[in-house]
Every structure is written in C-alpha cells, then in structure tokens.
Amino acid sequence: MTPVRSPIDFTALLSDRARRMNASAIREILKVTQQPDVISFAGGLPAPELFPLEEVRRAADAALTRYGSAALQYSTTEGHPPLRDWIGRQAGIPAANVQIVTGSQQGLDLLGKILISEGDTVLVEAPTYLGALQSFQPYGPRYVELPTDDGGIDVDALEALLRTTPAKLLYAVPNFQNPTGRTLDAERRRRLVELTGRYGVLVIEDDPYGQLRFSGEAAPSLYELGLEYTGDVNTNHVIYCSSFSKTLVPGLRDAWIQAAAPLIAKLVQAKQGADLHTPTLNQMIVTELLDDVLPRQIETVRQAYGERAGIMLRHISEQFPQDVEYTSPQGGMFLWVTLPQHMDSTVMLQRALTRNVAYVPGSPFFALGGGHHTLRLSYSSATPPQIERGITALGETIREALDQG
After folding, report:
1. Can you give the pTM of this predicted structure?
2. Residue 391 pLDDT grade (very low, low, confident, very high; cuts 50, 70, 90)
3. Would you state the pLDDT for residue 36?
4. Going edge to edge, which strands form the sheet with 169-172?
5. CA atoms of 201 and 203, how far apart (whole Å)
6. How far is residue 253's CA from residue 249's CA, in Å, rounded to a whole number?
7. Which are the contacts of 350, defined by CB distance < 8 A and separation ≥ 6?
8. What CATH number labels 74-291?
C-alpha cells in the first residue's frame, strides 16, 4: 500500500539567505514593457542598433582560428591572460590584480560573499543601484544610507558618520550614477578616499558607465586616488569594478574587478564555486575587439547617448510641470525625476502604462525605504522619436496625477 505523504512545504525549507532574496523591480517591470507599442524608459539597456554585430562575428572567427579547440575548453578561473594583461595596462597595475567575472552583477555578488558577514555595516548612497542591494542582501548587511546631492555623496555627512559608526564597506557609483545620473565631484572623491582610508573602510567603486561621458571633464577614479593615497596596489582599500557590457555588448557578460592580492585570491575561490570561470570564447572575442573596435564603439555610444539625453532633457523642460525636478547627467544612461512629495510614482506607473510609456519607480533604489515620489528614466535604448512621444505622454500622466491629487 502506497503511503500517503503530505506535500512538501518548499518555502519552509529555504535557507535564511534565500529568504532575504528578492526579485529585481526592474526585471518585473520589463516583463510588462515587452509589448511593441510600449515606449520603455525602464531598463538600463544599451541601444541594440548600435551593437557592432559584424565586428563581433569577425572577432569570434578570429578567436576560433587563433586558439582552435582551446577557445571551447575550460580555462583558468582568473580569466583569459591577454584580457587581464590589457586591463592591467590600462590601469597601470599587474594583471595579477585583475579578476574576470561573468558580468558586473556576478562581481558584486562575489564581493558580497567574501566581504559581508551578517550584521556588517555597509554604507550606500541614497538612492543607490538596486542590483547592488539585491546582490548584497542575502549576506545580511546592515545598511546605512549616505545623503547625496547634485555633487554626489555628502562627504561631510560621511565624516560625521564615520566618527561614531564603524563600517566595513562603502559602495558607490561615482560616474553617472545609477539611478540618478549624478557624478561625484573631484574634491569629494579625494576626501572620500582619505576618510575611508583613515577609518579602515573598504570601498567598492562600481564604474560601468565611466567611458560614456558626453559632456564635462573626467575626474580621477576612486581606485586611482586609492593608489595615490596608499602607494601600493596591494594596500589600496578601493576595489574597482567595471564591464564591457555598456561599451561593447552586454550579451558576452564580460566584466572585471581590480583589487589587492588578498581579495583577488578569495575572489578566485568564490568564483570557482560559482561557475569555475567566465566563458572562454567570450573573453577571447572581447580581447580581439579591444584595440580597434572598442575605441570606435565607445565614441559611437557616447554620441548617441549624448544626443538622446539632450532630447529627453529638452522635452522634459517643455512637457513636465514646473514643480517637478530632474537631474542633467554628463554621461551614462539615466536621469532622475523628483515629483512633488505627495505623489507616488509606483501608483502613477499604472496610469503611464495606459499611455504606453514605462519607467522605474524610485523606491526600490533606497536601501531603507522611501523615495515614493521619485522615478528613474533611461534614455539609452529609446530612439529620438520614441523619447519625444514618451516624454510627452509621461508629462500628460504627471499632470493628470497632479490634478487628481
């Protein structure tokens, strides 16, 4: 006789770490925006019509010709040596201090795994990149938010905080921040590096957009300032993360981390347990594109995003009510909108979708809640005509929401 068994309660069997996981708010919204008539300012997606498709095809052929079956074989966890060498030369550091990862998101997850113990204090911008929050959350951090303004992190507030609150880690996106599009100004960068060095706080500098500047002057990276402050790559308390996803193509999932040797050693061990190594052929393809295609592609993307940002800003100034505030990025893919305090961008999204326009509500970007009256707009993947129509529709949506209270 077959025994009667109760259905398994899978939820009850989940680990504490799994219970802390949550779905990406952006990915959930993108499911709604797959309809062809929806103009989406939601996802931070590179413009697909700008992808160097033929160049990637030729690079794949070249890699297979050059390396043969080795291109399809398992490889080293640290990454394809020529790719690591190139990255190291750009940064002026040994290749041994470079770890290749499968997309920036894996890099953040691995850093959370090796650095965050339950209850550790992690400092984040308010608002901050929600993908970082999603990566770090399973490891049980205690978030403390740092106030920001048009110049980025308020370093006076950071200094006051560090005098009284021990912290292990500070996470920041200093260039064209996701979600606000703001850039941390040069003097604040220097003070941030000095303060964190003085108080023994590790800094994760997430810089996927740094090459996408279309106006203004570049400032030194936090990593560069960390090298200057400490004088040694293996005592630098700044960890640098970047990616080829925004400059070449996202589908190859090639990114990297620059860090002190003890951290690289632990990242190697963590990555071995995650996926052994980033796909060999993908790394070889990227390497084939570095010296010729990459610089041209960066310039193409800069020009296109600069044009699209200008169109979006011009139409916002014409279509949005006067009491709506917004940022004016000098690069990257995003700008940030602040509505009057009584409005709720999550509720308003449903009205926007009836006009076939989508965005990301701002609240998921705040580690400790809030931001209900904010939203993020991406101008990277919408064409100029779509930006014009979408901002007009969004302006109508905001005015309607204001009129109806």
Report:
1. 0.94
2. very high
3. 76
4. 98-102, 254-258, 238-243, 202-206, 169-172, 121-126, 142-149, 152-153
5. 6
6. 8
7. none
8. 3.40.640.10
Assess whether pLDDT exceeds 60 at residue 1.
no
Name the percent of the chain lying above pLDDT 70.
Answer: 96
Contact 366, 127 (CB under 8 A): yes
Q: Please report the pLDDT score of residue 18 as a whole number.
A: 83
The amino acid at 359:
Y
Side chain identity at 404, as an amino acid letter?
Q
CATH topology of domain 13-51+295-404: Aspartate Aminotransferase, domain 1 (3.90.1150)
- Given a cut of 90, whether residue 87 has pLDDT beyond it is yes
Give the pLDDT confidence of 12-37 residue by residue, as tens digits: 888 888 888 776 666 666 666 667 78
Measured between alpha carbons, how far is 198 from 223 in angstroms, rounded to an integer? 16
With both helix axes pointing from N to C terminus, report the angle between 345-354 and 384-404 in degrees, rounded to the nearest 10: 120
Q: Locate 320 and state its tokens.
A: 């949005």
Domain boundaries, the chain: 13-51+295-404, 74-291
What is the 3-state secondary structure of the chain?
CCCCCCCCCHHHHCCHHHHHCCCCHHHHHHHHCCCCCCEECCCCCCCHHHCCHHHHHHHHHHHHHHHHHHHHCCCCCCCCHHHHHHHHHHHCCCHHHEEEEEHHHHHHHHHHHHHCCCCCEEEEEECCCHHHHHHHHHHCCEEEEEEEECCEECHHHHHHHHHHCCCCEEEECCCCCCCCCCCCCHHHHHHHHHHHHHHCCEEEEECCCCCCECCCCCCCCHHHHHHHHHCCCCCCCEEEEEECCCCCCCCCCEEEEECCHHHHHHHHHHHHHHCCCCCHHHHHHHHHHCCCHHHHHHHHHHHHHHHHHHHHHHHHHHHCCCCCEECCCCECCEEEEECCCCCCHHHHHHHHHHCCEECEECHHHCCCCCCCCEEEEECCCCCHHHHHHHHHHHHHHHHHHHHHC
Whole-Å CA distances, 208 to 259, 317, 353: 16, 28, 29
